Amino acid sequence: MIELNRILGANHFVFYNYSINKNVERVLDYYKTKGIVEVLTWNLPMKVDTWPPRKEPVEIHYFATIRGLERLLLRNFIKSKYLIWDEFIIPRKGKSWREMLSNLPANQAAYTFRNVFFRKEWADTNLTFAGRDLAEKYKSVTLLKLKRESKILSKTQRAKYIINPKYVDTVGIHNIWRFKPGKSNHYVDPSIGLLNHYRSWEQPNDSVARMDDQQTLIYKDELLERLKDTWSKLHNVPLGA
């Protein structure tokens, strides 16, 4: 997740730690020493969503994500030109976010990208490519899960966005709730960029229409080199644990 987004153009990452595995913590510690990652403790004194869902009702929605996003907006109002929330925004025109944005109207408060689901429970691609052995070794979802739902969700369904924090007042999970006066959002055409959303619906055999999508393979060589280099330095973290 970190290395692909770095290739795309991210230079700083913020993680909220509600509960993580010790090995994940060690990986994040490595990136912290490089000044790339910031980890914020996220202790919530109430019942939150879990998977599988808990029987008793939750007391706040989705780990208080809205509050977390608001905090990120305020913390990065001055120091960040753009903010991006999770998933993978993959350019379809241009290779990086910078190149992609050069094909879009300038000075927008937000650029919103439509969602496509890549189901993690579907089989890995049967495509043979140089470096596939490394992709399997490092369990690179973005290089091995190359089949997605054919349907591209509407611009108001599960979308995510790139924002200029100076132009935004209030954010939601999938949309901007309020802009600064005179500022607005640009909905990005799927031919320019899409939101690759990797998740498991735990329904591997349902009849949803699917298609091949190999766009992430354009990052293959650089991504595998970065993964190889990073894992060579994580001596105290079992691979695949």
UniProtKB/TrEMBL annotation:
Q: Which keywords label this protein?
A: Glycosyltransferase, Membrane, Transferase, Transmembrane, Transmembrane helix
Record-listed E.C. numbers:
2.4.1.-
Statement: the UniProt record of this protein carries the keyword Transport = no
Q: Name one Pfam family in it.
A: Glyco_transf_92
Subcellular location per the Swiss-Prot or TrEMBL entry:
Membrane
Give start-end of the signal peptide. none
- Enzyme class per UniProt: transferase
Q: How does it sit in the membrane?
A: Single-pass membrane protein
Q: Which domain of life is it from?
A: Eukaryota
Q: Which family does it belong to?
A: Belongs to the glycosyltransferase 92 family.
Q: What is this protein called?
A: Glycosyltransferase family 92 protein
Q: Which organism is it from?
A: Tegillarca granosa
Q: What is the lineage of its organism?
A: Eukaryota, Metazoa, Spiralia, Lophotrochozoa, Mollusca
